[in-house]
Design goal:
The protein is built from 18 helices and 29 strands. It has 652 residues and is of the alpha/beta class. It has a seven-stranded parallel beta sheet, with helices on both faces. Strands 13-25-24-14-22-20 form a six-stranded parallel beta sheet, with helices on both faces.
Length: 652
């Protein structure tokens, strides 16, 4: 009902599950002109001032009695579009979160001076579509024509590994964006990190024109980030490239979302409700029945996640890729050699690959871990070295005087005069060495060549064409000006030995991404993997067969009842709070439950974990029941915190 007063439906910034809905307020007459849909406001809720967004301006309300008025229109600037509201609601419901939590991830923080300042001129994008890229593949050319005609097509572009200069993933992304622009629509390009964002931004700017591409990244600074966010919400810019949060960008008439390297763990949001960018992109591309038809979606990468493979097998994603023989021909020459069980860290064949590569240009040596001597054990009895105070693992670091010191990786304490508690030995061995020690050893083995260590907090952005040894951890490989002449991947077995469901998938993704930086076989590029040649992940890389590996991996997970074939929900907290949460659940629940069991703790306090699993068709019911239990605890102000995560990215 309404007494004739102007109304505003507000999403109040209240991250409490039992208050996860919109609330109606009256709009005082002096605020009427500024109270636009999508604008920021201040309201009174339960006696305190709260921030919020106007979601809509209804003509009536179901609330009986007198409505509270808006306290203040913070800004008349509409920064939350209706399309974003639908997406935020869908993401919150999918991940058992609240609208307020997701809105914090989606909307850039306000910067008042930027908002009130003079608006920059954003030229219209223009330019001819370049050759190569997607256009070099028949299915890619067809997909581009469909997007150009405004169809919401969905595809997975399997980018062939091997150095192609500027005709890599960037060329295809530019073509996809241009196709969306030709259809009169906007485009979002999401990449995993700042380096990829800069590469994509430069490629798009060169093709579309300087000054027409917006960027969204947390490290840009509040003023610049809000400046570009406003350009999108005002409709001045139609193209944006950015990291995780860019998938929520306020692009008008959105026609395309591109997600590069969808398996990258940087897409797993560390803040509640922990949405994964790949799922958010799929939800936005799918649209809302009866409201919008969604948009085109392109996943691009050399590797293929199990989630993407499942969409392919369902027919929800089409595949865009070269013929297998073309894919293999464009890749570097690849081989594997077994690890050596001696003091020498580098097998002879790997050393030969490095030596031959250095005659033609830079050589990449990828190691799994940063640091110096990452793990230590007794030379005599092989007992791992542990800290005498906290029992944490002990590593060796290079001291300022050139010597080594033993430091606990947990508490940071330095050990002096170590002696094995089992056999009394005083000699150490290093079963796992890091990038720093590897660089040191390679410098001695190949004197006269520059050695570059790109890992940890010291990441090198690029390397020239000059011969050099580049030691890097996965994801920290410097971008080569003309491709690496060769690459050696050390400790492949260590990469695959992680106690993680995704260890094989992640290893294939990291190796193929590195292979993409190595010159093609016809240009002399070679890759040597040091590890078990019979391991499925190693075989997938040697054959450049990411699709086959993803197919087998998905089949294994389906047989085991693991994601993405099923949905998992994880709840962790102190034992009392977790027990109270379990008691608040209405039963019976669909699927299976596991636990409680002991969980890792970061503060020394006891923690427990519970898991629920169900078929995907029952996912809405299970997530709804979990969220309802959270709401009951929230309404009752139950003590203790329970952390709930839907489809946790790491399951151990």
């Amino acid at each position: 009902m309404s007494d004739g007063a102007a109304l505003a439906r507000v999403a109040v910034d209240l991250p409490l599950p039992h208050l996860d809905r919109f609330f109606d307020y009256s709009v005082p007459e002096p605020m009427e002109a500024d109270a636009a849909v999508g604008s920021r406001v201040r309201v009174r809720f339960a006696g305190r001032a709260c921030n919020g967004f106007i979601i809509e301006r209804p003509t009536s309300t179901e609330v009986t009695g007198r409505l509270s008025p808006l306290t203040k229109v913070v800004s008349p600037e509409p920064v939350l579009l209706p399309d974003q509201v639908r997406l935020i609601r869908a993401v919150a419901d999918h991940y058992a979160g609240t609208f307020a939590d997701v809105a914090r991830l989606a909307v850039a923080p306000r910067h008042a001076a930027t908002e009130s300042g003079a608006s920059a001129v954003w030229p219209a994008p223009m330019g001819a579509m370049p050759p190569g890229g997607l256009r070099a593949i028949p299915a890619g050319e067809s997909w581009l024509h469909g997007v150009q005609s405004g169809r919401p097509l969905r595809g997975f572009w399997a980018v062939a590994p091997g150095w192609r200069g500027d005709d890599d993933w960037r060329r295809g992304v530019v073509q996809a964006v241009q196709a969306a622009l030709l259809a009169g629509k906007g485009a979002i390009v999401v990449v995993p990190d700042a380096a990829a964002m800069q590469a994509g931004f430069l490629a798009l700017s060169r093709a579309l024109g300087d000054g027409c591409v917006a960027r969204l990244h947390a490290q840009m600074g509040p003023a610049r980030r809000y400046h570009d966010y406003l350009a999108l919400s005002r409709g001045q810019s139609r193209v944006v490239v950015g990291t995780r949060s860019a998938v929520f960008a306020p692009v008008h008439n959105l026609g395309l979302i591109v997600l590069v390297d969808d398996g990258n763990d940087a897409y797993a949001e560390p803040r509640a409700p922990y949405p994964h960018t790949r799922t958010v992109a799929a939800l936005r591309a799918s649209g809302t029945p009866g409201e919008n038809d969604g948009c085109a979606l392109l996943l691009a990468g050399s590797a293929r996640s199990c989630e993407a493979q499942r969409w392919v097998e369902r027919g929800w994603l089409g595949v865009i890729e070269d013929e297998p023989k073309v894919r293999r021909a464009s890749s570097p020459a690849m081989r594997s050699v077994p690890e050596v069980a001696s003091a020498a860290h580098l097998p002879v064949e790997a050393a030969q690959t490095i030596r031959a590569g250095l005659s033609a240009g830079p050589v990449l040596v990828q190691v799994p871990r940063a640091g110096y001597l990452v793990a230590l054990a007794c030379q005599k009895c092989r007992t791992p070295v542990r800290c005498p105070v906290c029992n944490g693992p002990v590593a060796a670091e290079k001291g300022g005087d050139g010597g080594r010191r033993l430091v606990c990786r947990w508490c940071g304490r330095t050990s002096v005069g170590w002696r094995c508690a089992v056999c009394g030995g005083t000699t150490l061995r290093a079963p796992v060495i890091g990038s720093g020690r590897t660089a040191e050893e390679l410098g001695r083995a190949f004197p006269g060549f520059r050695v570059i260590d790109s890992s940890g907090d010291h990441i090198v952005e690029s390397v020239s064409e000059q011969p050099a040894l580049v030691v890097a951890t996965p994801g920290a490989e410097p971008f080569p000006a003309a491709g690496y002449a060769a690459a050696v991947f050390l400790d492949a077995d260590l990469m695959l030995s992680r106690a993680d469901m995704r260890s094989g998938e992640e290893a294939v993704r990291r190796w193929l991404n590195a292979v993409s930086l190595v010159r093609q076989g016809q240009q002399g590029g070679t890759v040597c993997i040091v590890g078990d040649a019979h391991a499925p992940a190693v075989q997938a890389v040697l054959r450049a067969d990411a699709a086959g590996f993803a197919t087998r991996e998905l089949a294994d997970r389906t047989a085991a009842g693991l994601p993405p074939a099923t949905l998992f929900v994880e709840a962790t907290g102190d034992p009392a709070a977790l027990g109270d949460f379990a008691a608040a659940l209405e039963t019976p629940l669909p699927g299976d439950s596991f636990g409680p069991v002991e969980a890792a703790s970061t503060d020394g306090q006891p923690r427990q974990r519970m898991l629920w699993r169900c078929d995907l068709v029952d996912a809405p019911a299970l997530v709804g029941a979990i969220k309802a239990a959270m709401a009951r605890r929230s309404a009752a102000k139950a003590p203790g915190v329970v952390r709930v995560q839907v489809d946790p990215d790491e399951m151990g």
